Please model this.
Amino acid sequence: MSGELTTLWRPTGPEELELVRRSGWRAWPPRLPEQPIFYPVLNEDYAIRIARDWNAPRYGVGYVTRFHVPQEFLARYPIRQVGGETILELWVPAEELDEFNAHISGVIEVVHEFRPDLDRT
Model:
């Protein structure tokens, strides 16, 4: 496939990020049985909010990753609005994740890291 790339974002915790690192920064790990979908998000702000406000307190650290996929390939996945106007995700069925990974252009990059504010009580 050729054409324009879409930038996607994924908030993640340390365990998932370690599996991405082991892939050479080129693939997302298979979903667990209780995870029927893989959901990259369409904007950085939404990914930051999840990593900072959910993953960091829960796992001790939250990361935001960025990666690129051809628009033509992504057209098969409808955009899901799961909250406010900018709360947008793609829902990739778990059984399609290998094919999705094969369409990642370049590497998955960590662009933000958040840790809980230890001064809060």
